[in-house]
Amino acid sequence: MFGFGGFEGFQRPTRFNTQYRCYSVSMLPGNERSDVERGGKIIMPPSALDQLTRLNIVYPMLFKLTNKRANRETHSGVLEFVADEGKVYLPYWMMRNLLIEEGGLLQVESASLPVATFSKFQPQSEDFLDITNPKAVLENALRNFACLTKGDVVAITYNEKVYELHVMEVKPGQAVSIIECDMNVEFAAPVGYQEPVYKKKEETEQEMAVDEADFVPDGFLAFAGQGHRLDGKKKGTDPQPMALGAGAMRRGIPNYEYKKGKITFMRNVRRPQNNHQTEEDDEFQPFTGEGQALRRKGGRK
Known about the structure:
The structure is a single chain. About 15% of the residues lie in helices and about 25% in strands. The chain is α/β, with parallel strands linked by helices. A six-stranded mixed sheet has the order 2-4-3-6-1-5.
């Protein structure tokens, strides 16, 4: 019998925890990888894949990224294992959240996150309001993400323009997985947005009120010209025009309540002056008129 007392307390590691030098995707050798900048996944070296396959890692592979120097952390998935040994490549927006510079040390640790059920975003620019269907745009952009962390500012691209969104809230945890999930999304008002001020109808009517005196020029005389006859003779009377005030001259005032497709007919309805008629005057009396004969008495036969 051989004893292996020296290995009785040895346990196989079940978590991935390694430090790498961190670089932005623009430093990745080869062709430009714009697809990495549009998502929330990183590129790791092949040795990381070899180590992960030997460990009991829960799929999908999610990682907690920590910058111990600035005490900042976030979460991400992995896109490929093609990086140089000892290096990892991150999207630029993720490096800004971590406050890490090119070549800084980054702690990469495997993580298990709950599935997301709710998230709330705040656009960092009012230009986000120009998007016709923001939820559809966000849903399409989040397909390149694996998880979300509360407090991060993620970047999405739409119509060749980058929009930044602040992750204000996620449920059921501080960091959640968004792979194959049914997540409710809400938006807060963009940074710097102010609600438009609507005036009351009474104030608007007062501002749009028209004073008829403004339409009457000073010293205006109606029909002040002289007439001419067709036969060349002069008129026997000379016109004596009189000045008109604002009350005598009424101009047409536009209908501010006009709606397209609606025609309004304005009528002047005159009410009867005598409103004190009794019920006896209105009572109908038949055959009260006088008859008239067609032939007079004593006339020719």
